């Protein structure tokens, strides 16, 4: 008998009626002959509300207690979901992360999953016909401290369970009907994709497409879990996230994304000698600032260099603190932070084997009168850092330039 994992996000569990609706999905899958594991997020905005409460108490909540607090949101959902299924006359039993033995490391706030120890119990309950409800986003470390996987982490719980129990599919129920060629709130012509490859989805997720937790895609890729993202409100087919299959590579660009709220840190007149970049970025790493791209320009004469890098806007304070430290050592150094930056990107595995993508993108931005501040590329991504005020216009221009609103010629399901 096949197993399916269904994950319901917070907006799909905003009120009692939505719980009943989600419960009906799970029951339907069971009546269709599957074993069912349901993973739930906290109701609607409740995690944000808990974060808010914590900061009403203190500016610096302990990370352990923060996880202890945030994990309660999902505990509410599992119990309500089990009750909704009982109400419809079916068997269900709910578990917290700790109760299914979802073991993580001890990095509070972004713990990584190590193992799921209570597998036998779950397997035998599934065999007895129970629908298993599991709290997303949480686990326990070796000392039974409650940990969380990071905001949005219920997706990762769902994919981990799908991998651990060999599910046929991990269905992610959400308030959009799948993965789009670009955010449809910004690009009205954006098209729902029938499928997207893990590598593309990983890039899209980290480049601003907020549909799924990146780590869930990584896991899906490593364990080859078929992930299907679909709407909670309709029966329409959503988007499959699958492995690359070579016959489909005529699609060069799969999607475009916009990431806002970036900042550029520019360090001018840094001494140009071995070890300096190491020195600067060691401090950046110590403060856990995530750096996107780095550019170094050596001045004529070669004694000094300008180094600039892109960070998330909410790391600006940390960047200023680093610069203040460095200023003590390098008297000549000048620092400037430019906020309100954004990054527009195109993604597609087909870029591995096609040329001309970058020039087409730059031309589209030029036509839209968008200035490019910086460019970075990888095998399957081209990104341009731009002014945030140009962001939406840039996304629409790039989307149009690659005809992403049109179905590709030979678009057949993977
Ligand atoms: N409730 C958590 C959050 O809001 C986890 C999740 O929804 O995936 O981030
Ligand atoms: Mg989510």
Quick overview:
The protein is an alpha/beta fold and 414 residues long.
Keywords:
414 residues; alpha/beta; Carbamate kinase; 8-stranded mixed beta sheet; 6-stranded antiparallel beta sheet; 11 helices; 34% helix; globular; binds aspartic acid; binds magnesium ion
How are the SSEs placed, and which strands pair?
Blueprint (H helix, E strand, L loop, with lengths): L2 E6 L7 H16 L3 E6 L5 H12 L5 H25 L4 E4 L6 E3 L8 E4 L2 H9 L3 E5 L2 E3 L5 E3 L5 H11 L4 E6 L20 E3 H9 L7 H10 L3 E5 L7 E4 L12 E17 L4 H11 L7 E5 L5 E9 L3 H14 L4 E14 L9 H11 L6 E5 L2 E7 L3 H11 L13
Parallel strand pairs: 1-2, 1-9, 2-6, 3-6, 9-11, 10-12
Antiparallel strand pairs: 4-5, 7-8, 11-12, 13-15, 13-16, 14-15, 16-18, 17-18
Helix pairs in contact: 1-3, 2-3, 5-7, 6-7, 10-11
The structure holds aspartic acid and magnesium ion.
Under CATH, the topology of one domain can be stated as Carbamate kinase
**Cα distance spanning the termini:** 24 Å
Query: In the CATH hierarchy, what is the architecture of one domain at level 2?
Result: 3-Layer(aba) Sandwich
Order of strands across the main sheet? 3-6-2-1-9-11-12-10
Based on Cα principal axes, name the global outline: globular
How many helix segments? 11
Name the CATH homologous superfamily of one domain. Answer: Acetylglutamate kinase-like
**Low-confidence parts lasting 5 or more residues at pLDDT below 50?**
none
Level of helix content?
25-40%
Radius of gyration: 23 Å
> Ions, cofactors, ligands: which are bound?
aspartic acid, magnesium ion
Give the total of beta strands: 18
Strand content: 25-35%
The secondary structure category is alpha/beta
